[in-house]
Amino acid sequence: MLDQTQAKDRVAALIERARRAGADAADAVYSGSASESVQVRLGALEDVERSESEHLDLRVFVGRRSASIGSSDLSDAALEELASRAVAMARAAPEDPYAGLAPEERLFRGPFPDLDLADPTEPSPHRLRELALAAEDAARAIPGVTNSEGGSASASTRSFALATSHGFVGASGGTGRAISATVVAGEGASMQRDYDWRSAHHAADLPSPEMIGTQAGERAVRRLGPGRVKSGPMPVVFDPRVGGSLVGHLIGAMSGSAITRRASFLLDRDGQQVFSPGIGIVDDPLLPRGLSSRAFDGEGLPTARRNLVEDGRITGWLMDSAAARQLGAEPTGHAVRGHGGAPGVSPSNVHLEPGTVSVAELIADIADGVLVTELIGSGVNGVTGDYSRGASGYRIVGGEVAGPVAEFTIAGNLIDMFRQLSPANDLEWHRSVNVPTLRIDGMTVAGE
């Protein structure tokens, strides 16, 4: 895998090849990664896996025509052919009036901030095995745990570089460290499984493997003997590990490309009150050690902290340059690049700001409701906002969390759900989308 200096040199050289081949403009992306993981099960080593990958992607413009092509062969001969083929493809493509690079005057000129995304200490395979075993041992030690699907630990490194023909060259990189455990409680038809998993850039930011394993085991045991919930309208409370998906649906609907296609349930709601007053959702790409932190976006524009929702109101769409041109607006620094094709759009480190009440206070007046800890399926319509998903979790009776329940469905419409959303004060900070416990009144629950 190339280091950041080598990666910048390689994408800059690919841009020059594209210009020599006849491109009017171009951008190139390098992405490289290396990872090692160790899996154990029932106290024995089950798998050790090592993977490495490198990829170069080139996007060229000939007038308003464009084409994208990629290769995992980084040799000079392969890249010469890559550039020539890309230009030939672009010349045969249809014109797109919105195609083009990001505005030159808005490119990030530096200096690049140090976001502290790289752990200088790389764990050995032996250390990864120790961590995986410790997590699984702690989970299996919980009374009621009867089997294990394994413990794992992994370490990874990534490198990314972007160059454009109109003056941007930048690189970023980081490391990843992760630990997980998944176990089974109970016997026969009454078995239940659950897990815990954590990841961070730095090993020091992870909880201990024993804590992760204990959480996994306790969760599995707590799910034993699930009952059924009666159907009807009732309050639904979302645990933080599933509540972030609601923010994910909102972000998908805020994409500029969804707005241009008129395929968003937020269409024509820019600036409108979508949540209750006081609700805020923040995107912070410059958070040190944040899982999705980045100084520049996939088009070379600077990133910045932004309130996506402010006092309950949508503050605008997330746009790359093509969507911004189509909407007569400015790109927002949210472009991201994958393998091949034009940029997509994504936020970075997102959190829904906590409320002022504890979880106990949030549910104290719920006579009959459900706490959702797992969601199943993907029954969400991004155009209408209609929402229906399978779920499991726990009953809430008389303001207290009661026994486990399973095999029920929760349904509503996201616009109505957002209006009814109330947060507790227990915001967690270890995911890309971080939320506290969330309560939504008036959802339809279908059980027995």
Automatic annotation (TrEMBL):
The chain positions of domain Metalloprotease TldD/E N-terminal read 26-90
Q: Which Gene Ontology cellular component terms are annotated?
A: cytosol
Q: Which GO terms fall under biological process for this protein?
A: proteolysis
Q: GO MF terms on file?
A: metallopeptidase activity
Q: Name one Pfam family in it.
A: PmbA_TldD_2nd
Q: Which branch of life, at top level?
A: Bacteria
Q: What is this protein called?
A: Microcin-processing peptidase 1
